[in-house]
């Protein structure tokens, strides 16, 4: 599902992508990630390999202190237990109050009506970015007008799949990097959401930040896939590639538009 | 402890094992795994490398929707917290109602009386398969007659160790694949349980499904151990081996009773 | 922050370090680790690679049975949720009653007042060892006299960073092994705490045990970094190096004093 069929997509240059990556590496932003138990360790390692710093507590007594002091907040709805349901609104409020960007990843809302209803409430809090796949988007916002209204109000959508599409009230981007082997590793999408949160923390143009973050993560994934014997070796290779990623790597591989 | 000393064991052919593996790869069954926090990520990656799809939520509000829509359910009792204790009966009921196989792995029942009592209640729900080691079996069912009664009623036992024994009211299997290095990696047993659940979803002969699933996982482990410098590199190698496993690998390595 | 500026530090020989490592490998102590969700899997794998056995349940109904039967207890305060807050005092009491050493790792107390207050209560239970970095130490014990009083009473402090300092009422140790790449992998510090707990279980001289445990883990990290292309491959390499670590490795790399 394309949210805005008519919109033309913007080109993205390797220089833009590398410039933002370098800003992440220099600022070492802290990303507070409320994410599912399956994804926590890999997400933390992706953030560290990128040059960011993860924090991950979900305890309601302290999540506001952690989220309010972080440079960005990721809210991922996988394994949505009681502790996380209690923590998420507190964390979003703290991040909002501190003026930090909020990225929401409504994992599997197409498989659970309870989760879908919860995710819709979060959309009412106007996150800066929503990352999801086409099936999740259809479940979350069956009416096209509702998605358009959110985009008008400033939320950016990053719709991921074989192609990734960034939709915003300004520029849109179409991105074609990545490798199918990435989908054979759990939580690659979730960890990619944390990369987007890190990029949002260093760039006010949210659509540009999302496009650059997606490109960095997917190019690292491509490099890793080219060096891997399967999904097991993809994990260390992806983290190494992210850690070592150069402007030449990006220049050689970036596929947009 | 052998459950049925008198029973002769059945041979298993490499062709049978590979045929079932290919059926898993073609059907890409979804396995809902309620498993311990330590095992979640590795279990998800094992399922993906095998060709199955994991889901893992433990939230009581949505676990029935996830388990009822899955092709098989794994219930692993490691780190048995409140959330999981509440979720497990709901998930089993949903899987039963949908006619899906249920696999129970009563991890460490020999170390905690509370957990052992809880596991005995689950046996009353007549799971399709129970995977455990001899110490756990002795703790769970100290009376031989109780184990025999469960087997008579249709539950299959997969008793794992240096040798693996599949015991059923039909055929039994004795399997000798695997490598000691696998026990130096956390959650290999737990992840192996998820493989059994995936195989149960594509084959009605539960004992045959269990025997093939154990063989696939342990042969992948053997190949990985032969390529590893220790338990760290065993993990990516095992996932790569599982992903790439061929009929020739199985033919060259399968060791049965 | 150095706790005892005036104290001279003790030399540590490669033979002492290897002797204690071999005692861990021969005894295969069980370490019950109440640790954060992000660190659980890596911590379990570090313990297994070392030659110890992990258990990790946090359920209040059974944590006492697990902790009381273990050879050492690790309490790590990362992701401090309700279940863990309830479990920790029960586990410490059970370990104390059984005469087992208790190691506390007050992760991120400098980022959360609630967590800092909780950690101070734990100090009142007089753990055998506290592992933390200088920032956490300053937050936890802003008054130097309070730290000195705890050390007088028998608690050992392992203050980790580019240099590691072990402070006790007896000998002190200054250790200089490790590699900066280790800080780009999540939970290396947390997993290192579990190694200290394993060493405490086989050696009554707590400061010596801590110094040897830190050296073993950091030398394995150095070897891994020398073989890694980044933080991704560091993980399997570290586990392999820990599993294979010899007296020659330690002799060639140990840096103390």
TrEMBL record, chains A, B, C:
Residues noted as binding ATP in the record, renumbered to the chain: 131, 160
Role, per record: Catalyzes the phosphorylation of the hydroxyl group of 4-methyl-5-beta-hydroxyethylthiazole (THZ).
Lineage: Bacteria, Pseudomonadati, Pseudomonadota, Alphaproteobacteria, Hyphomicrobiales
Catalytic activity: 5-(2-hydroxyethyl)-4-methylthiazole + ATP = 4-methyl-5-(2-phosphooxyethyl)-thiazole + ADP + H(+)
Catalytic activity, EC: 2.7.1.50
Highest rank taxon of the organism: Bacteria
Names of the cofactor(s): Mg(2+)
Record Gene3D superfamilies: 3.40.1190.20
MF-aspect GO terms: ATP binding; hydroxyethylthiazole kinase activity; magnesium ion binding
Pathway: Cofactor biosynthesis; thiamine diphosphate biosynthesis; 4-methyl-5-(2-phosphoethyl)-thiazole from 5-(2-hydroxyethyl)-4-methylthiazole: step 1/1
Protein name, UniProt field: Hydroxyethylthiazole kinase
GO terms classed as biological process: thiamine biosynthetic process; thiamine diphosphate biosynthetic process
């Amino acid at each position: 599902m394309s949210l805005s069929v008519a919109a033309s997509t913007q080109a993205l240059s390797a220089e833009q992508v590398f410039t933002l990556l370098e800003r992440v590496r220099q600022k070492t932003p802290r990303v507070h990630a409320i994410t599912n138990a399956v994804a926590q360790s890999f997400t933390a390692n992706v953030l560290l390999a990128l040059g960011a710093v993860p924090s991950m507590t979900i305890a309601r007594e302290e999540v506001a202190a952690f989220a309010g002091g972080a440079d960005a907040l990721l809210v991922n709805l996988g394994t949505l237990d009681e502790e996380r349901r209690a923590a998420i609104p507190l964390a979003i409020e703290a991040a909002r109050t501190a003026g930090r960007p909020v990225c929401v990843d409504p994992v599997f809302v197409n498989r659970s009506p309870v989760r879908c209803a919860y995710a819709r409430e979060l959309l009412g809090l106007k996150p800066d970015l929503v990352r999801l796949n086409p099936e999740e988007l259809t479940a979350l916002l069956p009416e096209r007008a509702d998605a358009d209204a959110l985009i008008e109000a400033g939320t950016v959508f990053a719709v991921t799949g074989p192609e990734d599409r960034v939709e915003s009230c300004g520029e849109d981007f179409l991105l074609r990097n990545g490798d199918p082997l990435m989908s054979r590793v759990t939580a690659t999408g979730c960890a990619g959401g944390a990369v987007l949160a890190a990029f949002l923390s260093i760039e006010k143009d949210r659509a540009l930040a999302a496009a650059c973050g997606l490109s960095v993560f997917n190019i690292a994934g491509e490099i890793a896939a080219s060096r891997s014997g399967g999904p097991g070796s993809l994990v260390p290779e992806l983290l190494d590639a992210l850690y070592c990623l150069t402007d030449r790597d990006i220049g050689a591989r970036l596929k947009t538009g």
